[in-house]
Amino acid sequence: MRTFPKSLAAFREIVNKRGGELRKLPYQELLQHRDSPIETLSVESRPSTIGIIVEEQSNGAIRVVVQGFMKARVIPSASNVALDGFYKFPDGTIAPMPSDEFYEFG
Q1: Residue 4's pLDDT is what?
Q2: What is the Cα–Cα distance from 55 to 90, expressed in whole angstroms?
């Protein structure tokens, strides 16, 4: 049974799809997304934004986070958040981002 709005589920799917597309990119190409513009979209008539954060790590990996915000329906000053993230290494391997790290971006 779904416990959150249908529009939020659709928004999470969009954010996860963006993350999936980014995972396919080579390491060097991901680095070029450091200055990506924020994407503005509407999900079931709710204003939303998606940003891509690319951070170089001391171990040579890059941390990639897809961060989405969608205006809440009930409380206009609030936003729903959807996040996806991973680490990519120079050799092309990928590691999931630990769940506790997402709190830095919510």
Answers
A1: 57
A2: 13
Question: Distance (Å, rounded) from C-alpha 4 to C-alpha 43?
Answer: 15
Band of pLDDT at residue 77, cut at 50, 70 and 90: confident
The pLDDT-based confidence of 106 (bands split at 50, 70, 90) is low
Residues 42, 59 contacting (CB under 8 angstroms): no
69: exposed, middle or buried (C-beta count within 10 Å: 0-12, 13-18, 19+)?
Answer: buried
- Domains of the chain: which residue ranges? 6-101
At 2, which amino acid appears?
A: R
CA distance 22 to 70: 21
How many CB atoms sit inside 10 A of residue 1's CB? Answer: 2
